[in-house]
Give the backbone structure.
Amino acid sequence: MSTPADTTPPRWSARAYDASDAADRAAALAFFTEPDFHFRVAQPDTRAEWEIDEVLDDTVRLLCADGEPVGLYGVEDQGSEHGSHVQVDLRLRAAAPEHWWPAAYAAVRDALLWRRELVRVTVRIPEHDHRGIAAARAAGLTEEGTLAKVTLHDGVPCGTVFFSQIWDPRS
């Protein structure tokens, strides 16, 4: 696997998360012990196992770098399933180097584009998640604004920052 000092992105792969697979389950649960693993939750390291199970639905995929699980992503249709608008939730483990984040987003996006037409990808990131916001900016996503005070983090009201990537279907 690539090391943090190595600037070459790893070889990305993904598979559907399988709760019945002991290795998948152990990897996913370990991710949620990290205090900044904000995959669909505001405070991951405070979640009970049953709460994590609710987050790990059938839209979740295990993201691997050079074959090793390093994060999760999920894709959900927004609006009509034929509307070509999806929301992507993506999170890498804390040990993942910063330069992996834009590469991981690009790999997920490219896989989606291979399978379907896209007009818009939306990525929502908690306002307190500075690493996630930096990664979205590094990936070249357009920052659209913040929906203020929609969640609590450490007892403080925080917003959700919306990012997007939009394609013109006429071009």
Q: What stands out?
A: The mean pLDDT is 89. Helices lie at 22-31, 49-55, 100-115, 130-138.
